[in-house]
What does this fold into?
Amino acid sequence: MRRALCTLAAIVLAAVPASAQAASPPLLTGESFSALGGFPYGGLSLTCSTTEEAETYRFRADSVPSGPYGGTYTETGEVVVRQAPNFDMEVVSAQAEFTIDSPAGQVTGTKRLTTRVISDPGNSECIEPRGLPALDIDGPLPLSYTATITTSDGVFQDRGSSTMEFDRDGLRQPTEFHEQFTSSLVATEQEHSVLFGKRRPGSSFSAMSANTKRASPFVFYFPGTVRRIHAFIDGKGATSGSQTVRAVLYRRDPATGGPGASITRSFAYTVPAGMSARWVPFWLAPTAQLQPGVYWLGLQTGGAHGVARYAWDSVPNARRYNIDAFADGASDPFGTSFSDDQQLSIFAFGSY
It folds into this structure.
């Protein structure tokens, strides 16, 4: 049966044109944006707080980026500075989260300062005479970034270095913000990142019962390594509380065609009530090296009932589910299950 299955996968693969494979989106290299704060601009807001040890500047920048991802850009973050023994100011830390809402792809990422302390950043005034804080850093701050790029072809990764700069510029512009990205992830590392599964979110959502697992089958065409499983989930099944979720991966049972032996499972993820719908990444422990075949991708939920919801589309006999206590892990094998037509919006991410 296994030999026949691999042969079938090879035949189907030969019929799949190259254009049907996931296309890598552009990297962030060359992406840049600027924002001006203060009246009448308002693209940058800056607040601050001070202690005897340091001043903390929190900012939000809204801009129109230039580069591979045009659209709207939003970044929130903070910069912490302190006075050095020689009375210069030092940047102690800087971090930020950013999003780019673009027709080319939805980008989310984080940045952190790569050099712990930067001497003589310039001038900072937590509260100016006009009541507006100002931050002026002498030269760009070096940061590293990681980003997730979501397109209709799947979810891809980018990483690299960025520079973040705050310039004092005029009485009506207390601070000007600049950003620039340079990717260190090459395009070939992005290729084939979505290995198998359903990469577009379904149009329906169902709340997930407590201590239950559910899974859908998908064909895998190439040998490869699965490192993560992504599922499209929200927390809108309840207005309070949270629910733990883990991803599971099962082999096809040759006797029944349903999920059989367990391969691996992920670390748990906590879904808070009200969480907006998103592709949630589940890191596998351990990763799974797979040969071509049919595999069942699924989710197991913890003791809270109905907080987390999964997206799905109607496909005949596309889901198996059963009761399985979360506390002792996912059962091996999958066990006797019920079936219906809900195909989970879930896919495997890794490399060939």
Q: What stands out?
A: The mean pLDDT is 86.
